[in-house]
């Protein structure tokens, strides 16, 4: 099993002392049932629309307020879970993209939780959640062309030694570490604020793990909690 040690900078802990994340490392195995992702996505959309969790909207509201604390505008750049769920509310479903992306999007939609999926092989050093100084590089496609930008000073970002991997905490992932089913070393991070019960965070992790095992039997999975595990 490969090694990866994600961390949370004290500057982020001071901003969000009750933030908790579930970190899941996956050494992939041959994919035998790629359809698992699309099936999970369809079911998650249905469950969200028909039998949503009572705390779901409160959790997304907490994320919107958290974004405001570091200068982001959640109506323009919402957290990833809010953006996904709004698309489902508008369209009633979501088109499949990639088996592993579909699976972690399904978890995000069902549990109203931002979920990131990363290609570990593309990392330079370990991932860390920190506040940007504004000089860090971030690669993104704009109108189909790869371009580079930098976060705002004070913005909460995930980064490694080479630059930013996700802007505005969990709003937009960079190109360099983007994950697909072809990668063999995967890292997922499920990000929770206190409106979401800690038990629900574990259940979200269970859904992701079970889907991965169904998709690629024999995958090696390790999980750990980051941040405040007492709330």
UniProtKB/TrEMBL annotation:
B3/B4 tRNA-binding domain: residues covered: 61-212
Pfam families from the UniProt entry: B3_4
Protein name stated in the entry: B3/4 domain-containing protein
Coiled-coil zones: none
Lineage top rank: taxon: Bacteria
SUPFAM superfamilies in alphabetical order: PheT/TilS domain
InterPro entries, per the entry: B3/B4_tRNA-bd (IPR005146), Phe-tRNA_synthase-like_B3/B4 (IPR020825)
SMART domains registered for this protein in UniProt: B3_4
């Amino acid at each position: 099993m490969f090694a990866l040690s994600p961390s949370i900078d004290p500057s982020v802990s001071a901003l969000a002392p009750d933030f908790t994340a579930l970190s899941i490392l996956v050494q992939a195995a041959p994919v035998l049932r790629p359809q698992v992702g699309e099936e999970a996505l369809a079911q998650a959309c249905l469950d969200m629309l028909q039998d949503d969790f009572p705390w779901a909207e409160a959790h997304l509201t907490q994320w919107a307020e958290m974004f405001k604390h570091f200068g982001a505008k959640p109506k323009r750049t919402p957290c990833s879970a809010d953006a996904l769920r709004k698309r489902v509310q508008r369209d009633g479903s979501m088109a499949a993209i990639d088996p592993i992306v579909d699976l972690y999007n399904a978890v995000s939609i069902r549990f109203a939780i931002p979920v990131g999926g990363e290609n570990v092989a593309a990392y330079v050093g370990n991932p860390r959640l920190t506040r940007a100084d504004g000089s860090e590089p971030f690669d993104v496609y704009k109108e189909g062309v790869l371009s580079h930008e930098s976060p705002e000073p004070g913005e909460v970002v995930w980064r490694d030694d080479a630059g930013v991997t996700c802007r505005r905490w969990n709003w937009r992932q960079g190109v360099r570490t983007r994950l697909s089913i072809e990668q063999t070393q995967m890292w997922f991070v499920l990000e929770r604020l206190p409106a979401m019960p800690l038990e629900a965070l574990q259940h979200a992790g269970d859904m992701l793990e079970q889907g991965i095992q169904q998709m690629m039997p024999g995958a090696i999975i390790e999980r750990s909690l980051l941040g405040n595990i007492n709330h």
